[in-house]
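Both lines are retained for reference:
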Amino acid sequence: MVGTLAALRRFPVKSLLGESLTEAVVQERGITGDRRWAVRGADGRFGSGKSTRRFRQMDGLFQLAARYDGAVPVLRFPSGKHVRGDDPGVHAALSSHVGEPVTLTAEEDVSHFDEGPLHVLTTASLRHLGAVLGGPVDPRRFRANLVIDVPAVSGRLERGWLGQVLQLGDEVVLRVTRPMPRCVMVNNAQEDLPYDGRILRAVATADELTFGVLAHVEREGTVRFGDPVVRRG
């Protein structure tokens, strides 16, 4: 046993703030509903914190949050207004917010994931980065699906798990595949966290612009807050 599941987060809409869960169903694609939706520009690319072939930097997305009501995402705007994803006015509301024509789009043939289905982070790595920065680091900056609490350990622990298997609770089995690349999104202001340009520089110092790891699902099931996490070779 390496630790316990200390945080479980899902992001209904790519590059928007998400929701904390006490339990979740994990399938081959990852946590059910995670990044199932995205904001799509008129050029067909999806809004993100960075620009690539599939994605385009789109300002203002971190000012929005999303949660699910059943299978429907509900968006919260800075004004406090909530708009359901099945409301015909959601596209106009999003377009007004980001300053260009966009639509809220469910995933079809093109994946909304940047790198992989599940992002895993440990408190050991957070403490390691905090030592570089000279103070604690809030895990929300890294948008991990799963945060594993590893008491009294500091260091890039999950880097030693590459190629190995993690069992979460009684059901879910993951295989750790590779380090998680990082970009400027980790610096961004979100909720009560201010912009902090030191974060990405510290990640580069601590771990060559990667932080946490990606994992694929080998056995589906349900995970719950507080589940034990066991590492197997």
User: Anything to note?
Assistant: The mean pLDDT is 94. DSSP finds three helices and 18 strands in the chain. The chain has two domains: 3-30+115-232, 35-106.
